[in-house]
Amino acid sequence: MECISIAIDGPAAAGKSTVAKQIAKKLGIIYVDTGAMYRALTYQTLQENTNPEDEKAVMETLNKIDIRLAQHEDGQRVYINEQDVTEAIRYPDVTASVSEIAKHPLVRKKMVAAQQELAKDNSVVMDGRDIGSHVLPGADVKIFLIASVAERAKRRFEENNQKGIPADLHTLEKEIERRDELDSTREASPLVKAEDAIELDTTSLSINEVTEKILEICRPFI
Ligand code: C5P
Question: Which intervals of the chain form a coiled coil (predicted)?
C-alpha cells in the first residue's frame, strides 16, 4: 500500500479523535492527535507558571522538552520527556489555556514541522484544526467534522464522566464556544475548512456511522 494521509479537522469536541482512532485501527495506520501536542505544551507551561501571552517564554518551555506520542494497543499515550501526561492533559485547567498557547506562530511552526515529519514516511490519520489547510495540504482525504454545540458539549460531558474528569454541561458549552472562537480568529493558521475538505455534520450520527462514512470516502486510496 502506498502511504495514505487522512486529515480530520473541525471544532472542539466534534468527535474527531474518537473517529480518527477507529479509522487508524481499521486501516492499520498511525493516528496522530495534534491537539495532544498543544495540550502537552500547555500542561508544561502551567507547571512552570509560564506567562501564556509571552511567546518567547512559551518557546523556551517548548524547546527544553520532548513531546512524544506513543502508539499503544489501548490507544495513543502522550509523554513529556519520560512523564506520561495522557490523562493530565485532558483536565479543565489545560483545556482552558490551550488556545492561548496554540495561537503563537513560533509554537505552531515547530509543532507543524514535527507533525509533517511524522507523516513523511508513514500512512497517517491526523486530527486537529489546520491539518487539511496547513499541515498536510496534499492529504489524500480531508474531512471537516461539525456538530451542534449542544451535541458536542453532551458528548464531552459523557466522555469526561467516563474518565473521572469533573464536568458540568453548561460550563462545557461555554468552554467549547470560547475555544472555537479563539481557534477560528487567531492569525496563524486558524481553524478553517480547507477548500477541498468534505464536511460531515455528525450531530445525528453515531461514531460508527461517521467512521463508516469516512472509510467509504477513503476507499479509492486503500
Ligand atoms: O483537539 P483538541 O481539542 O484536543 O485541541 C486542543 C487545542 O489545541 C485546540 O482548541 C486548539 O487551540 C489547539 N490545536 C490547534 N491546532 C491543531 C490541533 C489543536 O491549534 N492542529
Answer: none
